[in-house]
Design brief:
Structural class: alpha+beta
Order of helices and strands: EEEEEHHHHH
Largest sheet: 5 strands, antiparallel
Number of helices: 5
Number of strands: 5
Strand order of the largest sheet: 4-3-2-1-5
Distance between the termini: 53 Å
Mean pLDDT: 89
Strand content: 15-25%
Radius of gyration: 18 Å
Length: 169
Amino acid sequence: MTNMKKNEFRPNDYVVYPAHGVGQIVSIEKQEIAGIQLELFVISFEKDKMTLRVPTHKATEIGMRSLSSPDVVTKAMTTLKGKARVKRAMWSRRAQEYEQKINSGDLIAIAEVVRDLHRNDDQREQSYSERQLYEAALERLTREVAAVSGGDEMAAAKQVGDVLVSRAA
């Protein structure tokens, strides 16, 4: 089976890398590694001051994807409005599930984590690990919403925040 999808990602494209969120392809470079010519996407995660090199033939396999469509963003926002689903499982098990969702790179799953861990001022305090997962999910969601709508992270954060606040009403 030939891999026709090899060139669906191009330099300057924003992509979502499951473990790190939104990055931008800076270039595609060739490198020889152990005598094998490899083509690599060079992806910059500006916010994290990090650069990643991903073999082009592995990109889709590891779950790298294009930004979500505006439809998916709308769905994610609808998900945020939903009622928090908190399972009765032990926190360690729930935390593991939340982490898997965050690192799945799936925007809807990430929105579910934000929804389930969001606290209003009058609700009980979040534990440190709850807050960390919440902030990680929120940041992923906000960055992708911003990238899809043209890059304004402040506006995206406000949009997400407004949805979460309106839900409380």
